[in-house]
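Internal ticket #5521
Category: modeling
Description: The requester needs a full-assembly model to guide mutagenesis choices. All entity lines are attached below as received. Residue total reported by intake: 766.
Assigned to: D.W.
Attached entities:
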Amino acid sequence: MDEVIFLEVLEADEVHARHRLDRFPVTVGRGYSNDVILDDPKVSASHLRIERTEDGRLVLRDTGSTNGTFRVEPWARLAELELADDARVAVGDTVLRFRGRAHVVEDTRVTAIPVAPQVRPFERPFAFPAMLAVTVLTFLLREYLTNYQKTDWGSLALAVVAPVFVCFVWSGLWSVASKVARRVFHFGAHGTIGSFGLLGLLVIPLLMGVITYSLGLGAWVRWVSLAGYLAWVGFILFWHLRYVTRTEPRRLIQVLGVILVCFGALTQADSLLGEEDFTSSVDFDRTLLPPAFQLVPSKPVDSFFEGTQKLQEDVDALAKEKP
Amino acid sequence: MLTILLLAALAQAPVPAADDLPGDEPDADTPAVVPPLPVASLPPATHELFERLKGRVAQVRIIERRSGTRSSIGSAFFVSTEGHALTNYHVISDIVHHPEDYTAELVREGKDSEAIPVRVVDVDVVHDLAVIRQDAPVKEWFELAPKEPPQGTRLYAMGNPHDLGTTIVEGTYNGLVQDALYDKVHFSGAINPGMSGGPTVTGDGRVVGVNVSTMGNQLGFLVPVAHARALVERAREVKESSPSALLAVVGSQLLDNQQRITERLLAAPLPTQQLGEYHVPGRWLPFLKCWGDTPHEPENPYTVTNYQCSSEEDIYLSGEHRTGVVAYDHAYVSSDKLGALRFSALYEATFSNDPGGVDATKDDVTNFRCRVEFVKVGGVPTRTALCLRAYKKFPGLYDLALRAATTNASTSGVQTSLTLAGFSADNARALARRYLEALAWTK
């Protein structure tokens, strides 16, 4: 083995401490007389020793430790081990790894954006308050337009407080995650992304409803809506995560894509499996909008009733299914 | 709604001579029929009539096989020496639908230990009648009156209300209910739950009706004896009846009934009713009862005027399934304070209110399937939805729901909703189409 080796103290595969060893023998243990000191209560004061033999090999010897020294793969207690590159031994609760200078490291990861970092749109000054204001105003407008009773100040107030509260709590949680992972809160960016996301959750279904009504689209729009919803959630989570992890964007998109497709499939499991709960209610799209929103011509009564033949076939098929 | 009752009553003195209906001279040689009263006697005392008749009335018990005990009770009365007895269809409906889970037995007054097993021979589901039969011959039975008595005749209903024992209740005959979709006799007397299926007799003991339901104090309903007579005659012809054959009988009776109602409706012109600037379907036939209302709530920036019609009657199929219903309602919604968008929120909310549908369970019907489109009705653009569901046990029968909302004006409109239960798909569509085409705008 190499004349200089590195002893690495591992914690869950991450290197916790690294010692350069160039003079042998080296002693390892909990006591302060050792060359390498391990603060592990299950390690003996004088635990093991690494020596170079006359023919240049490096040998690890247990020096009579209480709890013993173990080879990790395959797991075996040992008194003596000839060190090879990447060898691992366990002492107490600690795993030690030995690597020589010749150890080959992985290829350098290529960064996806070899350009100078730009100011991201979510980090612009006042982006958060501006986006939050737009969201709150949209909620207020929605509340006003859908209330046909006399003005209800309580629900209007709630339409302001609820989105603000949700945005702050949501961005707060993401900021904590950023702080833990990246040491910066990025509260403004998370707030902007969060309020933008909330705006989308309100606007997307409204928009889909209007388009479906205006163009007289069929029930398949439900699937488009679902896909749009998932894509929107994916978009928002992607940007939140960009401020939390250093994972490459491409990889992040793949992971989020898989998670969201699974999530979408789970929520639709009933209809994908053809299972339907019994209901005695009449289920159809009840949307009604002012006359100007109708963009397709009305059908004559004849062709409407002709089209209902299909309904009869559908329910006959349902009636024949096993109960 | 009417509540169903069980049992029977008996009677006391008929009005003198009024019961001596032509054509039913009691046969003195037949001990089975009630002996005639002395001419010109005073009305018989109720207790005498009860003594003579109580042995001919029995309690029907529906026995759930697994628990081996009764799950419901009703009343029945014998009508032939071969052991035929009449009761209500709704008393024995469990046996028609789940013959593997239920059996029926008859228990006479005071003979609790001598339950006699009976089987269902034939049914008339539309008039809520059934004939059951025990194998042993019967010594005493009731004679069915050959015709309806005059209004005001004193009658006696017999039965076993709330399992309290055989009872007799006095009341008067008030003729067929006017404008009813399904024939029934109005009896002014207390008919109580448990008396369902019992007889109502004149003072000389002839049956003029079968107890079926009540609408509260002193307001009872009977199935006219004519339907009972027809069913008994048919049942005497029946040799063997299997449960699946009974279901098929019920199905064909429902099909005949819906055909009769459809023909009556389509033969009549559909009158219209003015509602705001619109014409909407009015009272199509007298059996439909129509009501209207405009709630006055000055705080609301809009008004909604309701108009609804319903047959207010249905056919009992099982505890959770009713059919044979025609009902519709309209709502005229308008506002001079709301803008177009806020009005559309209101209009959408009222369109989402469904009238109470017809009772049914997963075992009876499928889910609804709907088609919703923009449809031009007589020049008015509407948003119209038509929904169908099929009956699982009775192929060829469907429930239909039609919903339409006019979309020609931005701050007013009329919404309408039609419910048809238990029609063939073609008949339901024909009725729905006639109904929808009655919608018009008057400007």
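Resolution: model delivered.
Comment from assignee: The first strand of chain A starts at residue 5 and ends at 11.
Ticket closed.
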